[in-house]
């Protein structure tokens, strides 16, 4: 990789470390500072990493009444089917979870937050409720399970099918893949 007019070569991992540092520092210091890493590296008020992160997470400000209403709706949706996946259509991790649930023969409901007018509010309410602000956000039997890594890990440990069976989301004799 060549930077500016000099012949500075760097590895991709080094660049990712720099960008990660910039993202972390900007989060702590704010990107508006003229000498912040985001300003120096990108001459912008938000780094590309921060912009990408906001696609999968939500941190909008809401009044207590708005949060309570969104929280009520999120809880109703989370318990409206044996398995509920809060998702976004363009999210690869969400697609992986949906693909895995389909492969094991699970019955599940998908709530595509990016297709709902109140999707950002629901995602903020889910973050408040579960501590998880990113998607996918998976519930089984009304109980929070986690995200993609958790679901895949449970599958690899042969723990997913029993959870699905307890939630009445799959037939007792489904084959595990």
UniProtKB/TrEMBL annotation:
<keyword id="KW-0963">Cytoplasm</keyword>
<dbReference type="InterPro" id="IPR014025">
    <property type="entry name" value="Glutaredoxin_subgr"/>
</dbReference>
<dbReference type="InterPro" id="IPR036249">
    <property type="entry name" value="Thioredoxin-like_sf"/>
</dbReference>
<comment type="function">
    <text>Has a glutathione-disulfide oxidoreductase activity in the presence of NADPH and glutathione reductase. Reduces low molecular weight disulfides and proteins.</text>
</comment>
<dbReference type="InterPro" id="IPR011899">
    <property type="entry name" value="Glutaredoxin_euk/vir"/>
</dbReference>
<keyword id="KW-0812">Transmembrane</keyword>
<dbReference type="GO" id="GO:0005737">
    <property type="term" value="C:cytoplasm"/>
</dbReference>
<protein>
    <recommendedName>
        <fullName>Glutaredoxin</fullName>
    </recommendedName>
</protein>
<comment type="similarity">
    <text>Belongs to the glutaredoxin family. CPYC subfamily.</text>
</comment>
<keyword id="KW-0472">Membrane</keyword>
<keyword id="KW-0249">Electron transport</keyword>
<dbReference type="GO" id="GO:0015038">
    <property type="term" value="F:glutathione disulfide oxidoreductase activity"/>
</dbReference>
<feature type="transmembrane region" description="Helical">
    <location>
        <begin position="12"/>
        <end position="42"/>
    </location>
</feature>
<keyword id="KW-1133">Transmembrane helix</keyword>
<keyword id="KW-0676">Redox-active center</keyword>
<dbReference type="GO" id="GO:0034599">
    <property type="term" value="P:cellular response to oxidative stress"/>
</dbReference>
<dbReference type="Pfam" id="PF00462">
    <property type="entry name" value="Glutaredoxin"/>
</dbReference>
<feature type="domain" description="Glutaredoxin">
    <location>
        <begin position="83"/>
        <end position="145"/>
    </location>
</feature>
<dbReference type="InterPro" id="IPR002109">
    <property type="entry name" value="Glutaredoxin"/>
</dbReference>
<keyword id="KW-0813">Transport</keyword>
């Amino acid at each position: 990789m060549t930077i500016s007019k000099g012949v500075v070569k760097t590895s991709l991992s080094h660049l990712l470390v720099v960008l990660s540092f910039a993202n972390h520092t900007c989060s702590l210091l704010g990107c508006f500072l003229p000498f912040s890493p985001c300003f120096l590296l990108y001459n912008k008020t938000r780094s590309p990493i921060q912009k990408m992160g906001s696609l999968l997470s939500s941190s909008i400000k809401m009044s207590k009444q708005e949060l309570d209403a969104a929280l009520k709706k999120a809880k109703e949706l989370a318990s409206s089917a044996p398995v509920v996946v809060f998702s976004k259509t363009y999210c690869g991790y969400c697609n992986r979870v949906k693909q895995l649930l389909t492969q094991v023969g699970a019955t599940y409901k998908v709530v595509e937050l990016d297709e709902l007018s109140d999707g950002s509010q629901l995602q903020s309410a889910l973050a408040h409720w579960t501590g998880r602000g990113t998607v996918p956000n998976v519930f089984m039997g009304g109980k929070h399970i986690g995200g993609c890594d958790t679901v895949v890990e449970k599958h690899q440990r042969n723990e997913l099918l029993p959870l699905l069976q307890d939630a009445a989301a799959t037939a007792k004799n489904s084959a595990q893949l």
